[in-house]
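ok so i was messing around last nite and threw this chain in just to see what happens. nothing serious, just curious
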Amino acid sequence: MADFWQTVLQFAQGITEHVGTRLLSDFGQPRESFCKADGSLVTRSDQWADREIREAIGRSFPDHGVISEEATHTLPDREWCWVIDPLDGTTNFTRGLPLWGISLGLLYKGTPVFGYVQIPPLSQSFHGFWYGASGLSGPTGAFLNQQPIHSGSETMTANHLFNLCTRSTAVLQNSFPCKIRILGLTTYNFLTIAAGVATGGVEATPKVWDIAAVWAIVQAAGAVWVPLEPDPIFPLQAGQDYDRRPYPTLVVSHGGLVSTFQPLVAAIGKLG
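result:
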């Protein structure tokens, strides 16, 4: 199976570099954006990137299914399925803020086992393998630009960072034990924890394409994923439409911080 994982990694690296180069050329140029039914923005760049990635998956992995933010939201009845966000951080992208990315997660029987996220403006590429209870084996660990990363294990201080999303700012009525940041990019919110930059982060209403890749990466890096609602996130179920399904989530750098942050953000689970 080692050859399979090498093929998967090379594919993810190649297609995100290809798409990222084009998106960088679009970035900073006048562009037309539209509001989708849920109020989020989409641009012609999102739509082009989505088609490009889906077509590349079809050529390289014809037996694999695809879920995409901009196209198909229903999980196909396939053992393997890619979940893609062709342009995570569209608002940042349209406003000229250089923090946006391309996210690819690979599901096995409905659960992510591999994730790859390219952040073109920062020249950063994250990937990770996380097999959980899947029974699969292969390479392990989480990486930034091919170098191993691990979430932090040190004792938290007032100068550590915790990331919020724009829909979770109500938690600021609580007294937070560290500094707050809002990045405007779901994947990077959690990837900073995987890389040891931030101590924790919360997202109130992420969709499956926002979290599939980072589910594998952050856990491979040693961080702890804490769903903020009782229903399990994975495995996804074949035939189910995930367009309107949010997954309120807390991620912390190590297990000792769950009891610190979970009470502060517990109400976010009710926003879904």
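not much to say yet. Residues 6 and 32 are 38 Å apart (CA to CA).
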